[in-house]
Amino acid sequence: MNPASSTRGTVKERADIALNDDFLRNAVRFTTDRLRSGKKVASTEHGNWEEWRERGRQIRLHTIAHLDYYLNLFVENARSNGVHVHFADNAVEATDIVMTIARQKEAQSVIKSKSMVSEEVHINQALELSGIEAIESDLGEYIIQLAGEGPSHIVIPAIHKNRYQIAELLSEDAGETLEPDTTILAGYVRRKLRQKFLEADIGMTGCNFAIAETGSMVLFENEGNARMVTTVPKTQITLMGMERIVPSWADLEVMATLLPRSATGQRLTMYMSGITGPKRTVDADGPEEMHIIIVDNGRSQQLGDPEFQELLNCIRCGACLNVCPVYRQIGGHSYGGTYSGPIGAVLTPALNKNVAEWDDIASASSLCGACYEACPVKIPLHDMLVSLRRRKVERGHGDKLEALGMRGFATLMANSKRFALAMRLGKIAQKPFVHNSGIHLKLGPLKGWNTYRVAPTLANHSFRDQWKELSAETAAQPKTIDPAVRQRMEQVLADRQHNKSTSRTGGESHE
Amino acid sequence: MSNTNQPFSAKPPVVPNPESSHLTPDHEQHDSSQADWLDELEQKSKAKQQTFMNHIADRLQRPRIQEAPKHPFRGAPEIWQDFNWNEAEKIEKFTKHFTEVGGNVLRMQTLEEAGAFIAEQSRLLNAQYIVRQQLPETEALTLEARLPHVQISAWNSHTEEAWKARAAEADIGIVLADGAAAYTGTVMVTSSASQGRSVSLLPTVCIVLLPIERLQTRLGELLIPWDSKGRENLPAGIHFISGPSRSSDIENELTIGVHGPGIVYTLLIG
Ligand code: SF4
Asked: Among candidates A447, A273, A211, A419, which has minimal Cα distance to A344?
């Protein structure tokens, strides 16, 4: 802040902004109408895809093979930029550091954008236990947070709610009746969260990539909330997996080419932000204080393991989830970890250093190899799954899970109550948190990698146990899915299929 | 990228503050009550850093690497690095790509023309507040004269203002692009005292002025120069914007303007 900040009060005190709501409403119509009438946006055909994949793989391999050098370089540069860098060996240490900062700031609220690592270390739970409000700022995430439910779809967390139900929820939140119109509802959330952004003491983000040579961190997103989190609150905390490094901005071009195309079929996400240190003294926005917490939490265990080191090359695009037939059948929550899908099936046991407890998941994979084909950095997930099974057999853990039916997910997701039930069956290790209007259950990782969700620890319970109980529950329910929900799901899948095929089959031409 | 993408136009002196360099990170200005616990964390961190890095080297079963390793695969594939469109192609592709995701692109000959267009849009949309970067280019739009009834502020033009709140209430924000890439349909804006990151983020409408000579073909042409600029010369925020803020979280229906601007115009100038 400039020196005058003390005399004019904080933004929080001056947050009485005069929003011109009609203007917003019209603006939204302006763009959506134009988009609807225009032809459906086709995904980019990007030429030489195999060559890009190979390049992406080489850059990741090189970085991980020299991780001590590049991570150290990043740390030194980030410090020179004025960032406070911290190291956490595990979830407890990461949480401790966050809580230390939050206490020092006497924080009352933390506003968050997507971060897988924050889910991995259960930061929301820790904050709320200390009476600090943790607000998720993605639109869908905010809706289900209000409902006290878990996400029901990997792409659209609130797809089990139609616009009338969402209108009801948000009306309650607003204390006035809101019409069930997407524009009005999103407009309300915008206004509400804007206030929250201006009031929040701390903004918390993840980190897609960290550039070693300049100490910069890079975020990819579509809504703009990650930009808000890194622009508005006075203090920024970034949780970063220790393997998120790329050497240079030149290397970022390769990641920026691979990640959005693989994740959502976009040429680039609407926003990509490179943040290099806290705000400069003369700047009038940006965080005054910036912390980056570098988290190991089991990652270093993969280093030096010839079969699994490449796990650290993952850029969290979620492409392997989208193509996995098993994942599409059972959904993410049944994987029981923060990370789901084929990558989760390998990474979860790896991070938990306890293959025996988790390898049920590996058995659930059909080993069709689609995940490898889809992976933009060519991680041999199917080989790793085979290795996992082999290690399991070597330890004498036989398993019949493959024979288990994988139906039930579709039924489950049509009814949010059944979700809550399913999650209770997961015997969530932490007690549910009673918070304001009700119980906050941050449920399983039904969203993909690229859209980050909280998952409480389900580790006390094996996948098999969960699945058995789940199957019993759902067997008692009629096996029909709400047609509207099904239609929306199918639309999502169709869109993604379309995007995938057009974005991955690009020939030699550039367009 | 030679002179086509000079990221910084000459800026007016904004906050007269001779002591603080343009690039002093803000952490140096904390009061001493804060300093203690931060120092403590800093000491802890530095102590832990060595163990952390040594552990990585141990796991990799070799001694610590202290010298920069050879990095033969740096950056995009070679064949990509020579790929360039001519100016007409760049304009066509940029327009196509930015428009396909819901953005708007218009070609203008001069800033004068751009000013007239923005004034007309402001009247059409009934804008009440406009915030612009404090730059010669946005001043040359002469919006203050064209729109006497609209409250127009130049970012950080005086210190006694809650600038984030001003940007948050603004209907229109006006920024100057430091560069753009046609292949992805992306504009790049950077932060400085006179160029708040809020200006391209918080208002409902964002209008980006893009001098045509700053339009490149590849995203790499915007990224790679930061490698050679030197760490200490990087702005705190480098933002790549490819269209309006979007979400499909309600009934899989595309909604725009969820957090960031819902209408984005790029005005290609020149
Ligand atoms: S393992 Fe999966 S999430 Fe990771 S980069 Fe490969 S496809 Fe993407």
From this structure: A447
Helical (H) or strand (E) element with A472: helix A463-475
Domain boundaries, chain B: 88-269
Domain spans, chain A: 11-163+201-301, 400-473
Kindly state the average pLDDT of the residues B59-86: 94
Helices (H) and strands (E) in chain B, counts: 8, 12
- Within 6 A (CB) of ligand 1 lie A 262, 314-320, 343, 374-377, 379, 381, 449
Rounded CA-CA distance A168/B255 in Å is: 19
> Residue A254 to residues A50, A141, A258, A373, A381: CA-CA distances in angstroms?
12, 30, 6, 18, 21
pLDDT band at residue A378 under the 50/70/90 scheme: very high
Q: How many CA atoms lie within 13 A of A458 on its CB side?
A: 31
Shortest Cα distance from A150 to chain B (angstroms)? 14
Using DSSP, state whether A58 is helix, strand or coil.
helix
pLDDT band at A453, cuts 50/70/90? very low
Quick one: average pLDDT of B71-97? 95
Cα B228 from Cα B59, distance rounded (Å): 32
Contacts of B80 in chain A (CB under 8 A): 48
**Amino acid residing at A230:** T
Task: Find the closest chain A residue to B159 by CA distance.
Answer: A4
pLDDT, residue A159, reads 62
Structure ipTM: 0.89
The model's pLDDT over A118-151, given as tens digits with 9 standing for 90+, comes to: 878 889 889 999 999 999 998 888 887 788 765 5
Report the top-level CATH class of B88-269: alpha beta
- CB of B63 within 8 Å of a chain A CB? The answer is no
Query: What is the rounded CA–CA span in Å between residue B90 and residue B184?
Result: 11
Cα B203 to Cα A161, A359, B37, B111, distances in angstroms: 29, 49, 37, 21
Q: Do B197 and A227 touch (CB under 8 A)?
A: yes
Give the span between the Cα atoms of B97 and B185, in whole angstroms. Answer: 5
CA distance A29 to A21: 13
- Rounded to two decimals, the pTM is 0.79
Binned at pLDDT 50, 70 and 90, residue B142 comes out as very high
Considering only CB atoms, B65 lies closest to which of A68, A242, A249, namely A68
Q: A11-163+201-301: which CATH number, 3.50.50.60, 3.40.50.620, 3.40.50.10420, 3.40.190.10?
A: 3.40.50.10420
Pairwise CA distance, residues A413 & A408, whole Å: 9
